[in-house]
Amino acid sequence: MRFSTVLLAVASAASLSMVQALTGAGDATFFDPAVGACGIFNTDADFIVAVDAATFDSFPGATANPNNNPICNRQLTATTADGKSVTVTVTDRCVGCAQGSIDLTPSAFSQLASTDVGRLHGVTWTLA
Length: 128
Description:
alpha/beta, six-stranded mixed β-barrel, 3 helices, about 30% strand
């Protein structure tokens, strides 16, 4: 019994560290949020992000109900090629984003560049 408990604890820790190490790279754009895939209402002033649909849908523990996806409410730090960064909360799924790309609220995007830019290339991100 003791061995199986230890084995389960090690397996759980290993899968948790794999989830914590999730990273991506792509473009960053911005959108006008409302109620996102996680079932949370947000405004332009909130520091939130919609991750690409492939990442959202394949996140460990995801089910048919996006409101219960374990990626919801996780912190993501996005960094531009010139070193500017912003930390945001995952609350949505971006259907139009290429894999690795993210969609930010205008206030979060503004931490990286002017919204006049519209799209940033070469943005990397880490999910905590």
